[in-house]
Design a protein that fits this description.
By secondary structure, this protein is mainly alpha-helical. 56% of the residues lie in helices and 5% in strands. It has a two-stranded antiparallel sheet with strand order 1-2. Helix 2 crosses helix 3 and helix 3 crosses helix 4. The mean pLDDT is 91.
Length: 85
């Protein structure tokens, strides 16, 4: 059975994101999501080092830092975007 895809609002509640979740959250292409993920991964490595809880995911705070957004601004943008479905 296939797992249900999370909405952008649900992804805002997640602490850690996979590449595909970064793409869905920001509404960007796979190439852009890979670039953002790589930069966020580097930030998390610098910040947490070997103490990283999820080595194959990045924190939502790092994604926001790469995109030069605050988490609150991202929440506001997604909340005011057109409704999904």
């Amino acid at each position: 059975m296939a797992q249900r895809k999370k909405t952008r609002q649900e992804l805002l509640g997640e602490r850690y994101l996979k590449k595909v979740e970064v793409m869905r959250l920001l509404g960007c292409s796979q190439l852009a999501a890979n670039r953002i993920y790589a930069k966020a991964d580097k930030l998390d490595d610098e910040k947490f080092g070997s103490y990283r809880a999820e080595p194959h995911k990045v924190t939502i705070e790092s994604v926001c830092a790469v995109e030069q957004l605050t988490l609150q601004t991202l929440r506001h943008l997604i909340k005011n975007a057109h409704p999904e479905g």
